[in-house]
Design a protein that fits this description.
The complex is a heterodimer of chains A (325) and B (457). By secondary structure, chain A is mostly helical. Chain A is built from 13 helices and no strands. Chain A folds into 2 domains: 57 residues, no CATH class; 237 residues, MetI-like fold (Orthogonal Bundle), CATH 1.10.3720. The longest helix of chain A is centred in the N-terminal third of the chain and has 35 residues. In chain A, 33% of the residues are buried. The longest helix of chain B is centred in the last third of the chain and has 22 residues. Classes of the chains: A mainly alpha (325), B alpha/beta (457). Chain B: InterPro entries: Bact_solute-bd_prot1, SBP, TAT_signal.
């Protein structure tokens, strides 16, 4: 049936069905316009999802901020007193645990993500052109991504065990003395970074490979005709065109690396080891919550950590925006 | 060009009117029906969010027990059908590691959860905190008002540790002391197991061949995890965690104990020992790579298990060696049972505890090789037949000499262990202990003031 448009006059049947007043029904109820009804229906349909988001994200966030302003200890539902910003002051002046944890978080994230980006880009460049067995290589590359972090932690703990692990046996074949790896105060964090690199480089590779596949081939071909070598083509043609993808991958992986917890806890235990050598902000906040039951201070640390992550994301997004512009 | 919002709305309204009454009626939604839709959605969401279970137990609900994955739990699980027949209720038992168990309690009981009835707790680790939080039910009348249960039969040290704020809040089911595990074949030239700590250190240093992967001594070296085993060294050097309510970790006795333990592991122990707790240290001795190992006597069966041990025929068991203050090991209730204050099945929960810690069951379990807390079981020679004779003897001697705690007696045990463990790690790493101990002593003194304040409940 043809729908009436503004240029067509209403039919007789339509005129008969029309209410006396366009804004009300025959029983006097107010009738919404199509646009109003559509808009309200949209909100109605969205409201369960919005309610879920509010319940699962906004409520815990508000609850945590509220808790961070109290002296909550022992139990969350126990009596507690509002102490203003005291927990934040305590955290920010704590040079024994908080600031070293901030430094380790930054060190771990920057080190791991930088290595993953370089290796991921190198692997993506190698896998850019089709070759025999490419599907198998890509599948094998995905394996570390599929394993759970705790399983990875335990696996590496066994491999790197200074006494019984296979790593020291292998090093012995090439004349390198046994290493303590995760058992050493100084080697723990670099070892954890390498485990992170082993697990997450494939994701960087896949992201960058996707970016590489969208690049036009003509500029590179033109450079090739002009006599540019492989490094020059990569440095001056591919990399500038890939910058947006690289920055997006950095944001995604960077935020994820900042929040690393499972592998560190599985390999180093509470407090990130005997000398707190692998205690990042996440591990510190977990310890405050579950080992010390200092819920107020733990919430303050988590609020600061969240602000820290948001600040980094905003900075990187601005950088991405400038590049895109 | 973007159209201003008012004009856009007007244009849309005109289009809607022009579309005629049929189209209009098709998409019309009255305010009332819109309100009803929103109210229904919000109501459903609120009801589903706020709905709580019935406050009385379902007659068919199982009795839920949360327990540590431990030989005791595995053994009692085999006898559960007997209990189910007794009370006419199904039992659901969930086994977790110690950390998972503690975290589950923290998460669930912070929300006043009713889906835990019987709780397996560490009386020395969590009991004061849980009692302060009101999570453990008062069992005083139940244990003391039942002559057949015979509360007085429990050994003094574990029984005393069941009491917090003048209430019995747990019942001990597993007790633990340190045992000296040693290699009989290697110790023969030295006349057997050492009687003193100094002898043990000397022999450890002599037998250690670290370049070839053999160690004189292996033990826990993690900052927090090592504190409980180190406590026996501390007591045997004449020290204690607290003395008259003040920090005791800066005393000369404590520093001597720190230095001794540090030297033992630093000079005769395996590499990476500061990352070792029970799970890492035990396999080293089980695989024949160490001459001595001191840890809980409850784990002895690992060394007699052909699946993981190469020292089945060569392992020996001895009492804790004497230090300058004699042999003073710990003798503790490592695991106890309590009832969740929010449980809807408190009567059946008590029936379970009464059954699982009855004189008969403790004797049965001890005969299976799980040391209990009842004196009647220890007095019955038949219950000790499951243990190797030298282990049974060392357990008896250690129980006689033992102290009832192996960690600071505070609310925040986790933080206290982190502080106390710092000089221990310094010693193991070969650093100078006194400055670290002085720093830790000051921190521990501040901590005790705060902890005492929190204890007023």
């Amino acid at each position: 049936m043809p729908t009436p448009t503004s240029t067509e006059a209403p039919t007789a049947a339509q005129r008969t069905a029309a209410p006396v007043d366009r804004g009300t029904t025959r029983r006097g109820r107010k009738v919404l316009t199509f646009e109003q009804a559509n808009r309200r229906l949209k909100w109605s349909l969205l409201s369960p999802a919005l309610g879920f988001v509010a319940l699962m994200i906004i409520f815990p966030l508000v609850f945590t901020v509220n808790l961070s302003l109290t002296d909550a200890f022992g139990a969350v539902n126990a009596d507690n007193v509002y102490i203003g910003l005291q927990n934040f002051a305590d955290a920010l002046t704590d040079t024994r645990r908080f600031w070293p944890a901030v430094w380790r978080t930054v060190y771990f994230t920057v080190g791991a993500v930088a290595l993953e980006t370089v290796l991921g880009l190198a692997l993506a460049m190698l896998m850019r052109k089709a070759f025999r067995g490419m599907e198998i290589v890509r599948t094998v590359l995905m394996v570390p991504l599929l394993a759970t972090p705790v399983a990875i932690g335990i696996l590496w703990l066994l491999i790197l065990d200074p006494t019984n692990g296979i790593a020291n046996h292998l090093l012995g074949f090439v004349g390198i003395p046994p290493q303590e790896f995760l058992g050493s105060v100084s080697q723990s964090l670099p070892t954890l970074m390498l485990i992170d690199v082993w697990q997450w480089t494939p994701m960087m590779t896949l992201l960058l490979l996707a970016g590489l596949s969208t690049l036009p081939e003509e500029p590179e071909e033109a450079a090739l005709m002009d006599g540019a070598n492989a490094w020059q083509r990569f440095r001056h043609i591919i990399l500038p065109m890939l910058r947006t993808t690289v920055l997006t991958a950095l944001v995604l992986r960077g935020v994820d690396a900042l929040k690393t917890f499972d592998v560190i806890y599985a390999t180093k235990g509470p407090g990130g080891g005997s000398g707190f050598e692998a205690e990042t902000l996440n591990v510190y906040a977990y310890g405050l919550t579950f080992d010390y039951q200092e819920y107020g201070l733990a919430s303050a640390v988590l609020v600061l950590f969240t602000l820290f992550i948001v600040a980094i994301v905003v900075l990187l997004r601005r950088r991405t925006g400038r590049t895109e512009a | 060009m973007t159209m201003p919002p008012i004009r856009r709305r007007r244009r849309a309204a005109e289009r809607s009117r022009a579309a005629g009454p049929v189209a209009h009626a098709k998409h019309a939604l009255s305010r009332r029906s819109f309100g009803a839709l929103v109210a229904a959605t919000a109501g459903a969401a609120t009801l589903s969010a706020c709905a709580s279970g019935p406050r009385t137990a379902d007659p068919n609900a199982p009795l839920r027990i949360m327990a540590i994955n431990h030989v005791w739990s595995q053994a009692i699980a085999e006898y559960l059908p007997e209990f189910e027949d007794l009370v006419g209720r199904r039992v659901s038992m969930r086994l977790l590691t110690a950390d998972q168990l503690s975290n589950s309690y923290n998460v669930k009981l912070n929300a006043s959860a009713t889906d835990i009835d019987v709780m397996m707790v560490r009386a020395l680790q969590e009991q004061i905190l849980f009692t302060r939080n009101g999570w453990l039910a008062d069992l005083t009348d139940l244990v003391e008002g039942d002559a057949a249960y015979d509360w007085e039969d429990f050994q003094d040290a574990p029984r005393e540790r069941s009491v917090t704020a003048e209430q019995v809040v747990s019942v001990p089911v597993v007790t633990e002391r340190p045992a000296l595990y040693y290699r009989k074949d290697l110790l023969e030239p030295f006349g057997g197991a050492p009687a003193t700590l100094d002898e043990m250190l000397d022999i450890s240093l002599e037998l250690a061949d670290r370049d070839n992967g053999f160690f004189g001594y292996v033990g826990r070296g993690q900052r927090s995890g090592a504190v409980t085993q180190w406590s026996s060294f501390l007591y045997s050097f004449g020290g204690d965690f607290t003395i008259d309510g003040q920090s005791g970790i800066g005393t000369p006795e404590a520093i001597a104990a720190y230095e001794f333990y540090g030297r033992l592991l630093n000079e005769a122990g395996p590499p990476g020992v500061t990352n070792m707790s029970l799970e890492q240290a035990m396999p080293i001795f089980a695989q024949g790579k160490a001459a001595f190992y001191i840890d809980a006597d409850a784990i002895y069966s690992n060394f007699l298990d052909p699946g993981i041990s190469t020292v089945i025929d060569t392992v020996g068991f001895a009492p804790f060696p004497a230090g300058p203050a004699g042999s003073v090991p710990h003798n503790i209730p490592s695991w106890s049972l309590g009832i969740n204050e929010f449980s809807l099945l408190r009567d059946d929960s008590w029936e379970f505890i009464r059954w699982a810690s009855s004189p008969e069951m403790v004797a049965r379990l001890q005969a299976d090789g799980i040391p209990g807390a009842r004196q009647s079981a220890w007095d019955d020679a038949a219950t000790l037949e499951a243990f190797p004779p030298d282990l049974a003897e060392s357990m008896r001697i250690n129980a006689e000499n033992g102290k009832g705690t192996d960690r600071p007696d505070v609310i925040q045990v986790g933080r206290a262990r982190d502080i106390v463990g710092r000089p221990l790690v310094a010693g193991i790493l070969g650093e100078s202990v006194p400055p670290v101990a002085a720093d830790a002593d000051a921190e521990f003194a501040d901590f005790l003031v705060r902890d005492n304040r929190q204890r007023e409940f």
